[in-house]
Design a protein that fits this description.
- It contains three helices and four strands.
- The protein has 107 residues and is of the alpha+beta class.
- A four-stranded antiparallel beta sheet has the order 1-2-3-4, with helices on one face.
- A hairpin with a 7-residue loop joins strand 3 and strand 4.
Amino acid sequence: MHYNGYEAVVEFDEEAEIFHGEVINLRDVITFQGRSVGELKEALAESVEDYLTFCKERGEEPEKPFSGQFVVRAEPRLHRALSTAARRAGMSLNKFVTTVLERSLAN
């Protein structure tokens, strides 16, 4: 499920006969629950909006699901090989690595 750029996973609790979800890829915890798809969508939206309001009231920036940046540590040999391959391909190192990662996900 998605709402306002936030992504959630949902599970069914057979014993309680209720669906419960949690926004993923954040350090902060945002949860919600409902008995139907409509209730789940509404509860997710309310939970995210509550989180955003809470952050605003505290003067904090809400955590974003992904910034699009991450640090990768590589052995110097691999770093050199990637940089060389990127230059041969006429790409920046960043673009080259992103392209390779995208291809690996398509397989």
